[in-house]
Amino acid sequence: MSLHLEATVADRDVDVSLDIADGEVVAILGPNGAGKSTVLAAIAGVLRPDAGRGVLGDDVLFDIGAGTWQPAYARGTALLAQDPLLFPHLDAVDNVAFGPRSAGRTRAQSRATAMTWLAEVDAAELARRKPSDLSGGQAQRIAVARALAAEPRLLLLDEPMAALDITVVPAMRQVLKRVLAGRSAIIVTHDVLDALLLADRVVVMEGGRIVEEGPTKEVLERPRSTFGAGIAGLNLMRGRSVGTAVCTASGSLVSGLSDESLPEDTDAVAVFSPSAVGVYVEPPAGSPRNVFASTIRELEPRGAQVRVRTDELSADVTLPVVAELDLVPGKQVFLVVKASEVTIYPA
Amino acid sequence: MSLTQQSGVPRWVLVPAALGAAFVVLPLVALVTRVEWGSFFSLITSDSSQAALWLSLRTSAASTLLCVVLGVPMALVLARTTFRGQSLLRSLVLLPLVLPPVVGGIALLYTFGRKGLLGETIDVLGLQIAFSTTAVVIAQTFVALPFMVVSLEGTLRTVGERYEVVAATLGARPTTVLRRVTLPLVLPGLAAGAVLSFARALGEFGATITFAGSLEGVTRTLPLEIYLQRETDPDAAVALSLVLVVVAVLVIGLVRGTRSTAL
């Protein structure tokens, strides 16, 4: 079911406007404290925004201005958190049957529904287990079944794989991919892989605001936010357009190629891959290239390559280069990238 | 006996600690040495003893039930809501814990007694509360209720609201959440509170004798019987005291049992 949300939560400095189409899965990405969970809590009715309204289908979830507020139980928005939070006094099947029972179904009907959903998440054989006898991955699969058995109109997933052992994450991702197909859902995640495999669209939040949104593939290929570039493993410099270059706030001029007409003096970003960046200890002479003086912050080995992270940008170099140039954190270097490797587009 | 020292407790602390333990245990030992074992059984099964014991058990059970019925909602309101004056209300509710029971008895007399605040209302209903078994139950509930509220409020806060939030997003109405999630989760705390309330009601003396008097079979509970027998038949008083000690030990065992299975 489609969702339209506008919400302001003053004490967490969150102010967002978000739309989700019927049957669409949207991933909310962003650093810690960006306000991602706050958005889910407002939709679920667990947290009351200071202003805004939320509409699910034709149903007004809340409209603070008009004084409308539907309690969490009436919203049909099941919330799945990091922690499975299975009711410890109920076994797996009764946990999953909780939603149907609360909706007024009989015990037998609810159990039957629960068994179907347990099978759906490959957990039918765990039906009679108590939560204390389940592993983290098993418990989270059952929590997924429990959320789905409540027949939510919109499923809210708040970092559902963050607390799982890394070895069970792929299996969990498969389960989610299967059950999310054709469903309206919002998944908050840190992991770009979740966004890529599970979501139709990505929303990037930073500092309580939505800074970027679009189809997953587009955000990863052409990020417009620092966080978006970070998860895509790309360098991003932001500024105003000057011809086919970007002039950053610090005064650097980044030349590049633009495949669309770029109006003069508008917000624009320059994006390039770390592998296109060369590292020098002396400023190189000649050739129409971009040169940025910077200080090395850390070196991160990546197979045969080393990612050199400086204050703003990253460069991938080979191990012999690191040894030859004596690259260490704190060292002043010059980063060089050819204009033909830089893509420039409107922010 | 070996002491495993985990953190650096100074050795000299063991001396006052041992003195304190002896201070608690020695009187119980003294009591046991004074029991006339030969006549023990006949002393505790005499008519007046049996009447007192039976009355104590009945009234304490009734008080415990009242503590559950009134205390559970009170603990829920204190633990799960916020309102102005909440901390003041909490302090007032816990007052009977620190109030001398005899003061509580007088306060109850001026509330439910014939000339009390609610006395006329109760008279109209054709009820006479003061100096009746009902008065015993009221006095016991008055002193025992805080034990239920404190125990359950603590458990409610420890368990937290996370499960309740999940239940609500799964479509459960507040009453369903309370019945199917909250109460099962806090059951250990509820049981501990009930056992403590029962124990407090069983031992109640001051408020009972002030508000309910000491009428055999009607208001003379076991502690009152012990106090009276002490004058006329010290052996009977000692024997009945031992019965209450045994009950107390059982209560502590029960509470420890419920606490250790708590979440």
TrEMBL record, chain A:
Mop domain boundaries: 285-346
Domain ABC transporter: 3-232
Keyword Zinc annotated: no
Segment forming the signal sequence: none
Gene Ontology biological-process entries: molybdate ion transport
Gene3D superfamilies: 2.40.50.100, P-loop containing nucleotide triphosphate hydrolases
Keywords assigned by UniProt, alphabetized: ATP-binding, Molybdenum, Nucleotide-binding, Transport
GO molecular function: ATP binding; ATP hydrolysis activity
Residue stretches in coiled coil: none
SUPFAM superfamilies found in the cross-reference section: MOP-like (SSF50331), P-loop containing nucleoside triphosphate hydrolases (SSF52540)
Protein name per the record: ATP-binding cassette domain-containing protein
Upper classification of the organism: Bacteria, Bacillati, Actinomycetota, Actinomycetes, Propionibacteriales
UniProtKB/TrEMBL annotation, chain B:
Family: Belongs to the binding-protein-dependent transport system permease family. CysTW subfamily.
InterPro entries attached to this UniProt entry: MetI-like, MetI-like_sf, ModB_ABC, NifC_ABC_porter
UniProt subcellular location: Cell membrane
Topology class, membrane: Multi-pass membrane protein
Alphabetically ordered keywords of this record: Cell membrane, Membrane, Molybdenum, Transmembrane, Transmembrane helix, Transport
Major localisation: membrane
GO CC terms of this entry: plasma membrane
Top-level taxon: Bacteria
Function of the protein: Part of the binding-protein-dependent transport system for molybdenum; probably responsible for the translocation of the substrate across the membrane.
Residues passing through the membrane, by range: 12-32, 52-79, 91-113, 125-152, 181-202, 236-255
Gene this chain is encoded by: modB
Name this protein carries in UniProt: Molybdenum transport system permease
Species for this entry: Aeromicrobium ginsengisoli
UniProt keyword Glycoprotein, yes or no: no
Record-annotated ABC transmembrane type-1 domain positions: 53-255
Gene Ontology molecular function terms on file: molybdate ion transmembrane transporter activity
SUPFAM superfamilies, per the entry: MetI-like
Gene3D superfamilies referenced in this protein's UniProt entry, alphabetically: MetI-like
